[in-house]
Every structure is written in structure tokens, then in C-alpha cells.
Amino acid sequence: MIDLNDNINLPFSLQISFNKLIQRYEALVNSDDPFTAAKARRILQLQEDHPELKDGFSKISVLEQHKEAIQILLQDSFSEVLTLNEIKTASVPYHNFIFNATKRFENIIKTAGPDFELVIKNMPENDWYILSCTIIMSFCYNFNTNFKRPLYYEIPDENGIIRIYRITYNADFMEIIPTEAAPKLTQNDFDELLDNFENIDLWKEKFPPNSYISKGFVISNIFDVTDDQSISNIKTTLIGNNKRQDKSFMADFQKVFRSLLAVTDLEVGFSIFNKEENTLMKVHDSSINSFLLKAKEQFKCENLFCHYSYDKILKSKANFAISDVDKSFKKSEGQSPQIKVLKEQGFKSAIFAPIAEEGELLAVLELVSKTPKALNSINANKLLGVMPFILSAVKRSKLDEENLIQAIIQRECTSIHPSVKWKFESAARQFMQEQYNGNENPSFNKISFDEVYPLFGQIDVKGSSEARNSATQKDLALQLTLVEKIVEKAILNERLPIFEQLLFQIKSYQVALKDSFKVDSEQKVTHFFKHEIEPLFRFQLKTKSSITEDIEDYFSKVDTNLEVIYYYRKNYDDTISLINKNMSTLLDKKQVEAQAMYPHFFERFKTDGVEHNMYIGESITKEDSFNELYLYNLRLWQMQVMIDMETAFYNKQHKYPIALDVASMILVFNQPLSIRFRTDEKHFDVDGTYNARYEVVKKRVDKANIKGTDERITAKGKLAIVYSQQEDEYEYLKYVRFLQSKHKLGDEVEILELEDLQGVTGLKAIRVNILYQDETNTKQFYTYDDLMNTIKS
Fold first, then answer.
1. What percentage of the chain exceeds 90 in pLDDT?
2. Which of 612, 599, 590 is nearest to 454 (CA)?
């Protein structure tokens, strides 16, 4: 660097001058202290020999030429006695150039290492320019903007730990002189700047680069505040902890901001942002107001702000200031909602500060005053120093509220699907508000959705009851055989009537298991083992009889928890569990695809297989975007998923403990219906007598037979689609033909009538064979558009 003004973009050119310092010594010549007066005369004589030091210069070389003279000039400011203790520099304002420093400062920089570059933190480049402008406003126009922000150095110590140093400037030896290029500014110019802190082009228009001369130097007093900063960081994590309930909380909070911004009538408000509903909501605390919402509980953001303020606060997450409400109201002709609501409450200036983390808006801090221009876009930037504390408090508050909402939902409802969670949260907030308002018996609002289309499907283990009974028979028969052998051996050694009676009972049970296994057969035989065989065998173990070893072998084969032999039934239960787990996992994974197509409610249940319910419609999404195309897409997706689930099952069938088969069914319901959350049963169900027909069919149809036969409608290797309307048949036959073209379904298509169910007649079904593919098929799902393109071609 040759000149101070090299690569500098400021509203003034920089000159180092000791004029103001020399003027101080001119006054000290007349001091009553002869030592002070003599020193002053010596300084003045020195200056006469070096006139450049008073006139000012910007060339760096001049400092070296007058190095000794400058050191003498600064002797009083940089005492040798304190040079190892004080951290102090003499420098050019708004510049990193330092031309004199204490020994301690030099040692700190030396310790930081040769690659360290001294840079002032927390001051963006544009802010330096604007800060310079505000200094000019104060020096030349006596217009105080109160734009002071703490400035820091971050310097590593010998251990590499970053130390924080706060900088304070002594500008007593500075002067600012306008040049001919400096525009003459008026009160209107200053008023315009108050609302446009971020508009750097406007600031450069009012204060063109190099239109002023900055002469002099500043003395920087620097303090190590690392410990204070660390304490502040701790406070950041703790602030708000159980404080909001204190009666003095809001008053103290307001006091801090009044002191920070030097506005005596400042009031603080607060509102929470609800991303799901794009609303600002009142904090549920009687001591915290929202001046934007006024008396309302919540308000849509698009109706609360004008376009400009909406973009600035919600999209850019930037502060929005209104320095003169009356002037802005007149300018907008009363059409700006945020200005209108402030005027109605008598406020004359305001700052709305978004509180955000990682680009996500959490809340809006509202500062208002009844004094015009007291709050503006310039002093709004002083909030930067306290925003971390506010953010911490907001996060804690939102977490507490979310926990409370979830607790209410869990208590009043159950686990909630994301598609309908918004409505439960809204009801929970209303529930909470009633509590805050003193209602001792708040009620949880009815949760219902109208005009939604249902979809139901199930993939069920075929013959699961027979498989379970068979496994039970085998386990009981095995255990009876073991007991029979032990009793027969006992009879040979000791012919007691009780053994003969037990042997007779055992043989009776064996015959019954083979010939007439009934619902209560398992219970009777298990009771026999637990209450007759086990006590006898335990007694025999104590007597150390000849059958002791056989009894011990028997107990080693009996499950310790169930107290019966659990081998074949375990294989069955493990198989059912694995089938359910694998199919549920696949269905959940596929659901992510379906939700991406269009949001809808989804739930599944594990039985002897997997069932799923889906509901799709406008009332669930809250958006004016539903079209029946999304319903058709979901129906086609459902068919593909049922096929994929069967395919996945048969690809893994050889890995299951026992061989079972599955059968799939889809139930089609043509008309939209209403669903309601049953708080007592903790699940959604249809609402209304007419809609109940759907639930009746859903619960019974998989057991229905084909009309005039004993054959179930569900069959191994086939997909059954049950419906009642002719248009459903036409629609699903299109899907069938399309999936046949994609080699997912075969050519065996049946149109069948079902036997009448209780209160339900006229059901029909399409039944078609499934073409099982290997798991390498990469096409995940086909859309309704794919179907239409195929039909057109």
C-alpha cells in the first residue's frame, strides 16, 4: 500500500493529521503547571519543524520520514509506563492500517502468527460505508442516528484459542470537511435514509465516494472480553428458562430494549410463525402482546403484510422498519395492512424483526413507539447483538409449546399421520387457549374431513386359521406323545391307578386332536398339561424316581414362558411376523412415492397380513388444488403396490420358516364420504349412517364367496378388485389392461358377482392373475399419464 486511499471505498478520502492533537497542546502552553507548559512548547516547536503533521497526508512514506517526531507527539497518549499493560493503537478510522501501538498489542499480534490478518468482525462491507455516512451526518449536520455497534477482533492466543477483543474508539482528534463534490442535504434526505438502511445505492447518492475529507487519527482502546462473551453464550442457551411465567418478565424485557435503542416509550410485542398454515399466531401468555395481530389469535401472513414487507420479513428474513407511520399511511393511502394496524393503535414508528434459524422463520419480534422516527432501519441494526439470545428464547418457547401440543394430542388422540397433523395441532392450540383463558374443562374439537375418497386394500395370508390350527395340533400332539411315554414308563415301575387314569386321558386327547379339533381343544389340553401333568412331574422330580431323567428332558423341551411345547406354533408366528414386517416395510417405502404424487391420509394395520386405508381430498390438504386425476393416480398406484407386495412375498417365501400363501384384495368405493377421528377408539372412522356401509363392506368382503359357490373371492396368485358401480368396472379394467401391457398382470380376467353381505347387495369383482417378476425390475410405479399415453398410442 502506497497511499491510505488505495482500494478504499468510503464517502471520504483519508488523511492522517495531528492538527486536533496540536490544538490541545496550544491550549496547554498557558498551563499553570510549568512542566506541562514546557512540554507543550516543545511539542509545538517540533510541529513547526514538521508542518506536514498538522496539514495532513495520505502517503504511507510520510510516516516513516517523521517517525521520531510522531512518537514524541504521541508520548502522552501512549505512556511507556503502561505499554506492557494497555492494549491500544493509533490508526486511521474505518481502515485496518495501524501506525502506532503499545507493546502488549504488538505481542498479541506476534503470538497470533505470521499468517494472521487483523480484521474487525461483525461489520459487513456495506455497513462500513453507511457507518461512515452516519459519522458525517453527526459531524457536519448534527444529526444523531445512534448507530453504534460493538466491534470486535478475534485473535488466536499461543494455544490457538480464539480470544475476543472489544474495540472502543477515541475520535477526539478527528475532523471531517466537506468538499465541493458533497451534495447539500436536507431534512427530507435524512428522513428518506431512516427507512432505507440496506439501500447502499441511496446512501452513495447522498454521500458520494470521496466527497468529504476525513483528517486526523483515532486511538483504539482494546479490551479482552473473552470471558464475558463466553458467559453471554451460556446465557444464550439458558435465557427464557422458566422466565416467561414470571410476572416481571415482560417489563424487564421491555426495559432492556428501551435502554438498547434509547427509546423511552418503546413497547415490545411478539408473534409466532406457523409454517404449515402461513400464519402469525399470538403467544399463549397474557403478558405478551402482538401489535400486528392486535386482538386476534392468528392471522394469515398474506393478509397481514403488503407485498414488499411480506417478501422482506418472510422470504428475506430481514428487518422491516417504519420510521413514520403517519407519513407511510398517507403514502400508501391506507392500503398497507401492517401500517394500518399500527396507526389504529396510535403508534408512530416500528421495527419488525424476523427471528430465524438456518433460513427458517420462527417468530417476529415487534418493537413499536408512539414517537415518530424513534424506531428506524438504522437503529434496527442494533438488534443484531441481541438476536442470538432472542433466538434461543424462541426456540425454547416453541419447543415447550410443541411438547405441550404433542402431549395433548397423545392424551386426546394417538399417533397422527403427517397429512392430517395440522388439524390436530390447530385443535390442540384451541384446547390450550381455553386453558389459558381459565376454562377448567376445555374440550378438544371434533376432527373430521368431508368429501374425501376412500381406498382400502389388504394382502392376507391364505388359510391362516388352518395353518395356525395345524401348528397347534402338531405342538399338542408332540407334547402328548412325550407325556404318554413318561407315564407308560412310570406304570411299568409302579402300577398306580393315577398313572392309568392319566394314560387313558392322554389317549382320549390324542383321538380328539385327530378327529375333532375344536376352538376350545387347545385350551383343554393346555389346562391338562399345566394343572395335572406338571404338578405330578414336579413331585416325581423330588422323589428321584426312575423317570426323573425323562421328566427333566420333557421340561427342557417345554417353553419356560408359555409352559407348553411351542415349536410349530413358533414357526407359524415367526412366519406371520416376518411376512407382516417385510410387507409393511415395503408398503411404507412405497408410500413416500405416493405422498409425493399428492398428499393424502394413510394408515396400515397388521393382522394375518397387512391392511391399509387411504383417504384423499381437498379438506385434507387445505389447498385449492385437488383434482380427480390425483385419485386416479392413487388407485393405479395402489394396484401396482399390491402386485409388488405379492411379488416381494413370493421372492422371499423360501426364507420363511413355513410355506404359506397370500391373497390380495382392493375395495373400490365410488362416492366421497366424511371421516371423523374417534377419540375414544383413537382412530379415524367414517362419519354418518350412509357412509357406514363402506365400513361394513370393508370388514366382511374378504370372507365373501363368489355368488352361487363356496369359493372365496380372494385367491392365491390373483388380485381381487371389489366394486359396486359399473363406472368402477370400466375404470379398473383400463388399469388392468395397462398393467397387462407392462407385464404386471396376466390374461386371466374374471368378472364375478359376490354373495350378498348383511345389508349390502350388488357387489361385483374383477379378478386377475398376477405375473410375478424378479426384484430387479427398476420401474417403481406408473402414473395415470402413462396410462393415458398408452391408450392414445
1. 32
2. 612
